[in-house]
Amino acid sequence: MSAIRIASRVTRIKPSPSSTASDRANALKREGKSIINLVVGEPDFDTPPAICQAACEAINRGETRYTQNNGTPALRAAIAAKFARENRLTVAADDIIVTNGAKSAIFNAFAATLETGDEVLIPAPYWVSYPDMVLACDGRPLIITCQEAAGFRLTPEQLRASITSRCRWLLLNSPSNPTGATYSRAELRALADVLLDYPHLAIMTDDIYEHIRYDGSENVHLLEVEPRLADRTLVVNGVSKTYAMTGWRIGYAAGPKALIAAMGTLQSQSTSNASSVSQAAALAALNSGTEFISHSREIYRQRRDAMAAALNAIPGLHCQLPDGAFYLYVNCAGLLGKTTATGQVLKSDTEVVLWLLESAGVAVVAGSAYGLSPYFRLSIATDLATLQAGAAQIATAVATLNSY
Ligand code: PLP
After folding, report:
1. How far apart are CA 134 and CA 356, in angstroms?
2. Is 354 helix (H, G, I), strand (E, B) or coil?
C-alpha cells in the first residue's frame, strides 16, 4: 500500500479539458503532424511594452519582497478607481483583494464559504473550471442549461425555478466563456428582480472578459443595475484577458468585508500575496488607458466575423456571432450520424472533435466540457491566416463525410 493517498477533493475533479485538448494536439505535433491549435484560452498578443517596462522598473526599485497579503495599497487603490471609472461602482480599497489570477479569487471564495453539500448555480455552457472548483470545495454544482435559442443566456424564469434552499451562490459570467453571451441592462434588471426575492443566495460575477465585447452596447454591471445586491455580491475580475497578461497571474475581487477578510485569511495560509512584480505591472495596466483594449478588440472582431462566416458556410455547422470574449461556440448537430472515410459514425461532439483533430488537423474543445452538446469551442485568439487555414481544413474534412 502506497504512503501517498490522494484525497477525494482531488479525485472527484478532473484536469482542465482545454489543457488536455492542447496536450493531445501538441503530442500529434511532436509526431510530426501539422496541427492548427484553436484551443487556446489566452490572447495571442504580447503584454504591451509599457506594462513590461513598469515591471522592470519595479524590480530595479527593489519591489521584490512580500507585499501586503491582500495586495499593495497602490494596486488596490487603482482597482477601486477602475471600478468607479469603468463600472460606475463605488468600492473601498479595503474591500478588494488581489489574487493569483482571477481563478484563485473564485476558488478562494468557494473555499471560504461552501460547506459539504452546499449548492452553486452555474449556467451552462460554463467555463470548465467552475464545477470542478465547487466540487473541490465540497459543494454541489447545480447546472442550469441555457439554450442556443435564448442566446445561451440565463432567463429569469430558469433562475427562479432553479433556486433551492441549499443554494449558496449564483455564478454569472458575462461575456461568457465559451459562448460570448452578454447581458443587457434590461436582462440584468430581470435577473436582479428574481435575486431580490432570495436573500440567502450570494452572487459571483466573473467579469474577466468585460472589455472584449463587440456589440457596441454599454458595459453594465449587475450592481450598477441593482445596488441592493452589493452586500451579497462578489465581483471577480483581473488583467489576464484585457491586457494580455495571463502569465502574470493577477486577478482581483471586491465584495462584502467578511468575505474579503475570509478570502484573505485563506490566501495568507496558502499562496500569500500575488507576485510583487506582477502587481506593479497590473498597476501600470490599469492606468494605461484604452488604446491597447480598443486595438485588440478590433482585431478580435475581424477574426470573429471572418471565422463565423467561414464556419457558417460549412454544411452541418453553424454558430451565432458572439457578443464578446474570443471564442466561437459552434453547433455541430448537423455532423452527427455522418460516416467518416474510415467508416466511423460520428455520434457525439467528443467524437467530432477527435475526428477533426485526426482528419482536419484542427484542435478544438468539445462542448461536453462546457456542459452543452453537441457543440465545439473554437478560439479566435490566433492570427487570421491560421484561423482561415483551420476553417478551410475543417471544410475539406467535412466534405468527405457521408450519410449512408
Ligand atoms: N474566468 C473565466 C471565464 C476564464 O475564461 C478564465 C481563464 O480562462 C478565468 C476566469 C481565469 O483567469 P486568470 O487567468 O486571471 O486566472
Report:
1. 31
2. helix
Tell me: do 127 and 228 sit in the same domain. yes
Distances (CA, A) of 348 to 330, 337, 343: 13, 9, 15
Task: Locate the ligand 1 atom nearest the alpha carbon of residue 106 and give its number.
Answer: 10
**What letters, b where the CB count within 10 A reaches 16 and e where it falls short, cover 202-222?**
bbbbbbbbbbbbbeeeebbbb
Per-residue pLDDT tens over the stretch 46-104: 999 999 999 999 999 999 999 999 999 999 999 999 999 999 999 999 999 999 999 99
Please report the sign of the dihedral spanned by the C-alpha atoms of residue 352, residue 333, residue 386, residue 206: negative
* 8 Å CB contact between 169 and 141: no
Grid cell in block for residue 9: 477533493
Question: End of a domain among 260, 286, 312?
Answer: 286
User: What single-letter DSSP state applies at residue 313?
Assistant: T
Mutational test site, ligand 1, from 97, 100, 208, max ligand atoms within 8 Å of CB: 208
Residue 177, SS3 per DSSP: coil
**Which atom belonging to ligand 1 lies closest to the Cα atom of 238?**
15
Which ligand 1 atom sits nearest the alpha carbon of residue 250?
15
Pairwise CA distance, residues 154 & 300, whole Å: 25
Cα(126) to ligand 1 centroid in Å equals 12
CATH number at residue 299: 3.90.1150.10
Answer yes or no: is the C-beta of 377 below 6 A from any ligand 1 atom: no
pTM of the model: 0.96
> Which residues, other chains included, contact 193 with Cβ-Cβ below 8 Å and sequence gap of 6+?
156
Annotate 131-145 with b (16+ C-beta within 10 A) or e (fewer): bbbbbbbbbbbbbbe
Q: Does residue 2 sit within a domain?
A: no
What band does 136 get if pLDDT is binned at 50, 70 and 90? very high
Whether residues 135 and 257 fall in one domain: yes
Q: Does residue 33 sit in the same domain as residue 108?
A: no
Domain that holds residue 13: 8-46+291-403
Do 335 and 280 share a structural domain? no
- Domain end call among 265, 286, 307: 286
248 C-beta closer than 6 A to ligand 1:
no
Q: Which of 397, 339, 342 is nearest to 364 (CA)?
A: 397
